[in-house]
Amino acid sequence: MGSVSLKIGDGTARFQSATVCSSAVNILMIFSVITTNLFALYAFTASNKHHQSQHLLLQHAHKNFSLISEQVQLILNEIDSSQKKLAQMEKQLLGYDTIDLSRPNIAPELKLFLQQHQLPLGKDSKTGITEMVPSVGHSCEKSSDLLSQYMTYKVHGSCQDDWILAQKLILRACEPLPRRRCFAKVVSKVGLYPFPDSLWKPVANKTVNWSGLSCKNFQCLNGKKLNRECIGCFDLLNGYESQRFVKARGKNDFLIDDVLELGSGGIRVGLDLGGGSGSFAARMAERNVTVITSTLNVDAPFSEFIAARGLFPLYLSLDHRFPFYDNVFDLVHAASSLDVGGKPEKLEFLMFDIDRILRPDGLFWLDNFYCTSDEKKRELTRLIEKFGYKKLKWVVGEKIDSLGSGKSEVVLSAVLQKPVRV
């Protein structure tokens, strides 16, 4: 920095010059430090403000995200609720949702049977369905305890001998019944006759399941009046059963051959409603006409007896819609089984189903229908007239009640022809 002298003169000037330079440098250094600190302070302040701004933005974004999430969750909840409501409506329409499967007394096999099964390839393009739904009667809910009892068994084992329980459910409108995974009781069918000898040969007692019935043989049944269509109807050798439909006992008894002559286009297939032991179908079989007999085993083994005769029994109540396509039968035969009781609308539903399965120009044979009152006769007459059937035969007479009351009752017999509707 140069010499420092105590001399006055040039030396003093040199000291002052050095002092000024040193002060300038110091001022510059101080300015640099201050400037640096100011920049650092600015940088720190700006950075702090930036971080605060980012923090506020993050808080605002998080708040918005929370609001959006809440709205999305509300929408998802609404969708889920709507799907459940639609599924409930669908199940109500299908008729099986009313069985509460959460009950502790519901049999596991019943729960398994009622499960929905998704189609492996998704929605079917022809039917629009996405899952297979098991078929079970809507009214089964009213008999859920009996239904669970029916569905309680050893899987892949032998079923209990509980046909009486099954029929009780059917009579309570629990129809169709669910399928089961057990083997039905086997009854030996040894001794059956070949067709057509089987039509009028006696059926052996050992070929029938007598459990749950008061009678244990056909000799016992022959002495009972089971219903108007079955008084000694299991006796094929003696009594009136072998003469029915071929020999008249009164003006209301039409003969099969006379009715067949009325059939336009020929009679080939028919349905007999509540046909007792199957004698109507047997007489038709002799004339090369196939007849299905609907029946239940009420107090007697009707179904097995009909099958043993080589005929077709249909185990079905009249409350069930007929499992046949439209316009397929040439003839429908019905007697007092047509009296389903209850409100007039119940008989009207049945008559419309009969009309559905009967072909145009087909015959509806009403055979000795007991009119318990004049009002009953008028209701039936008005109902028949609604369908516009042609009356080929119409006979109103009186008969002594065949069940033993001794009273004379009005009976109606008619052969009606279904019109060709356009």
Give a summary of the structure in a few sentences.
The chain is an alpha/beta fold and 422 residues long. It folds into 3 domains: 1-94; 100-186, no CATH class; 197-417, Vaccinia Virus protein VP39 (Rossmann fold, 3-Layer(aba) Sandwich).
Describe the structure in your own words.
The chain is α/β, with parallel strands linked by helices and 422 residues long. It folds into three domains: 1-94; 100-186, no CATH class; 197-417, Vaccinia Virus protein VP39 (Rossmann fold, 3-Layer(aba) Sandwich), CATH 3.40.50.150. It is 38% helix and 15% strand. The protein has ten helices and eleven strands. The protein has helices at 10-94, 108-113, 144-150, 163-171, 218-222, 256-260, 279-285, 302-308, 344-357, 374-387, and strands spanning 117-118, 131-132, 225-227, 230-231, 269-273, 290-295, 312-315, 329-334, 358-371, 390-400, 408-417. The strands form three sheets. It has a seven-stranded mixed beta sheet with strand order 7-6-5-8-9-11-10. The protein has a two-stranded antiparallel sheet with strand order 1-2. Strands 3-4 form a two-stranded antiparallel ribbon. Helix 9 (344-357) packs parallel to helix 10 (374-387). The longest helix has 85 residues, at 10-94. The relative contact order is 0.07. The model is unreliable at 1-22 (pLDDT under 50).
